[in-house]
Each structure stands twice: as structure tokens, then as C-alpha cells.
Design brief:
This protein is mostly helical. The protein has two domains: 111 residues, Cyclin A, domain 1 (Orthogonal Bundle); 106 residues, Cyclin-like (Cyclin A, domain 1). α1 runs antiparallel to α2 and α6 packs across α10. InterPro entries: Cyclin-like_dom, Cyclin-like_sf, Cyclin-Q_first_cyclin_box, Cyclin-Q_second_cyclin_box, Cyclin/Ssn8, Cyclin_N. Belongs to the cyclin family. Cyclin-like FAM58 subfamily.
Length: 250
């Protein structure tokens, strides 16, 4: 019944197709995780449950070939399951209606007919499949709490003018959110992702950490001693691939 494949969790070159362009599978996952994020917002989900839904989706397709199951059905079940994991339970009816409106913007809410109940049963059955494939390991350590701590530390290091004149914080949070379009959360440690998006946000606005040149080690290594520049570069490279897809996919 299941088609277990090599998965797409390696990222980097593994997610690239011909001529260094994102592979077709990566483009599908980008579209579907965009659906998860937009549906999650419309369902009133907080950022952590949405991140968990994306992580569940990516982890499932690390184990299963993309063409084995409908990715959007897996996405809907991921939303449903993430609501349970993060204690923000959702009703299947709400997930179905929001999803229907996403794909058919001008449509009315579905009636409680056979089509609705079939879709509801599919979501519940797919949730059980996801749990079995992932061996019930659906809890994740997200970078959010680390990023919050790191932002507060960097804010204290910088002078008030440098911090206020550039939206480093907003940009770092946006980079973190967008990272879930790909499987970074499965390939890198949460602390490393948090530092990398902060590093990129600081670079984007030309903000330098004071006394960086005189310090014994880079500022980012203060937050995570096992972090190296190549790891940061790999995370940033994966983020660039995500934004490349964003410009190419309607």
C-alpha cells in the first residue's frame, strides 16, 4: 500500500533538479506548505501549530513517495494532527470549509452531504496513516523560542538607534516562517536555524554586532557553540532556494 522512497529530507543539492533549479518535488512541497500556512492563519492557528503542521507534512514525505498519496489531503490531516499535538484542536468541518474556500474562492460552504462525510473520513484515516508512518513521533523542537531569546540579546548589544532604524526582528521572523516551505526544520538543529535567520536579517540591513572584530569568537557562536559558518551558509542557501521558488511559482 505504501511506497517508501528515498525521501526529500536531504535538502541542498538533493532538492535541486537540472541546471541547479529546484526539483519538481520541491515545487510541489512549496505549494502545499503555502496552503498549510494560509489555511492555518484562516483557522486562527498560532505560529507553533502551523510550524508543526508543516513539519509533519515534510516528515511524512521524507518517508513516502510524493505520488503515493494526495499531498493536499496529507496537508489537511497535518493541520488536524498539529492542532492536537499543540493543544489547539481544530474541527474537521472548519478545515474542510477553509480548504474548499482556498481551492474554490467563490464557493459556498460544503453541505453536510455524502461528499463532505467522505472528505472528513479521508482526513481522519489519513491522520492515522501519518501517525503510523511517523511512528507517532510528531513532536518537534522549533526554533521560535531560541530566536526570541537571540533577538533580545542582540537588541541589548546594539545601540537603540541601530535597532530601531532597521526591521531586523520582523525580517528574522519572516525568514523563519518561510523556512517551513522547505524541510529545514528536519535537517538542521532548531538553534542553528534561529541563528542563521538572525544572521541573514542582520546582513540584509548591514547591521554589525558591536566589537565583533575584537571578540574571541563570532557572536553567533556565543548562542550555539557547535555552530559553524558552513552550517549557516547551508541554511541560508536552502532559504535562497525557497525564495527562488517563490518568484517562479504563481
Amino acid at each position: 500500500m505504501e511506497a517508501v522512497g528515498p525521501g526529500t529530507c536531504d535538502g541542498g543539492d538533493a532538492a535541486l533538479g537540472a541546471e541547479g533549479r529546484p526539483a519538481p518535488e520541491a515545487r510541489v512541497h512549496f505549494r502545499v506548505t503555502r496552503f498549510i500556512m494560509e489555511a492555518g492563519v484562516k483557522l486562527g492557528m498560532r505560529s507553533i501549530p502551523i510550524a508543526t503542521a508543516c513539519a509533519i507534512y515534510h516528515k511524512f514525505f521524507c518517508e513516502i513517495d510524493l505520488d503515493a498519496y494526495d499531498p493536499y489531503l496529507v496537508a489537511m490531516s497535518s493541520l488536524y494532527l498539529a492542532g492536537k499535538v499543540e493543544e489547539q484542536r481544530l474541527r474537521t468541518r472548519d478545515i474542510i470549509n477553509v480548504s474548499n474556500r482556498y481551492f474554490h474562492p467563490d464557493s459556498e460552504p460544503l453541505e453536510l452531504d455524502s461528499r463532505f462525510w467522505e472528505l472528513r473520513d479521508s482526513i481522519v484515516q489519513c491522520e492515522l496513516l501519518v501517525l503510523r508512518v511517523l511512528r507517532f513521533q510528531v513532536s518537534f523542537q522549533h526554533p521560535h523560542k531560541y530566536l526570541l531569546h537571540y533577538l533580545l540579546s542582540v537588541k541589548n548589544w546594539l545601540n537603540r538607534y541601530s535597532w530601531q532604524r532597521s526591521p531586523v526582528s520582523i525580517t528574522a521572523w519572516a525568514l523563519l516562517r518561510d523556512s517551513y516551505h522547505g524541510g529545514l526544520c528536519l535537517r538542521f538543529q532548531a538553534q542553528h536555524i534561529a541563528v542563521a535567520v538572525l544572521h541573514l536579517a542582520l546582513q540584509a540591513y548591514g547591521v554589525e554586532v558591536p566589537a565583533e572584530a575584537e571578540a574571541e569568537k563570532p557572536w553567533w557562536q556565543v548562542f550555539s557553540e557547535d555552530l559553524t559558518k558552513p552550517i549557516i551558509d547551508n541554511i541560508v542557501s536552502d532559504l535562497i532556494q525557497i525564495y527562488t521558488m517563490d518568484t517562479e511559482i504563481p
